[in-house]
Specification:
With 227 residues, the protein is mostly helical. Helix 5 crosses helix 7.
Amino acid sequence: MTEEEIRNRRLIRQNVVERVRTGQPHTGSVVACIDRIFDISDRFHVKRAEIEADQKLSTVGRRAALAQAVRSDMMPELAKATRPIRKALTYAASQRAGFEDPVRVDPTDHVGELRRQELRSFLRSQEPHVRMSMANELVKDDAGAAAILDAHPMLSGLQEQFYGQLREAVAERVNGPKLAELSGIEGDYQQGQAAAAILMNDIVAASGLTTKAFAEEMAPLEAEADA
């Protein structure tokens, strides 16, 4: 690489790291992932320069040697380096699913279920504009939210899109701070994904694989790294 290319890569690395929030419990983990990914990228560029300078190899031989280095060394290392990112984002997704479904009812509370059914029936009996207005107000209360959201939207006479908006509003009311915290964590680890994407832009072509074949070959490497 030229001096300018080296400076540009350093700036890219610095910019990615600077987008990670500081002072978080996971900050060190994310930065370590990013550093490890860029280290692999640096090794790739060094290896490519060495192979291109090898006059004993033909053009075809150079391509084959670089592809072998990528597939035998750098792809497994990338799978290992990105393991914490996959682990964190998978955990965050599972947590988000729970926080975005904020309604909890006691299935053994038959009296409570009858009341919820009555409320849904009453909503269905209203004119559409009244029904929507009432639903907006009812979900501000836990009992009203449970009545509407613990059943299919048709049972309250609501359209699915509006029903989804109500669910989002309740999730924000009940779990807003937790969802905001998750978004921050996801955003930080996504910087690790961005670093991996930069590396993959370089090594996919060098691997001799199509983008689809590269992803297919990475999948078992990632599974092994995650085991």
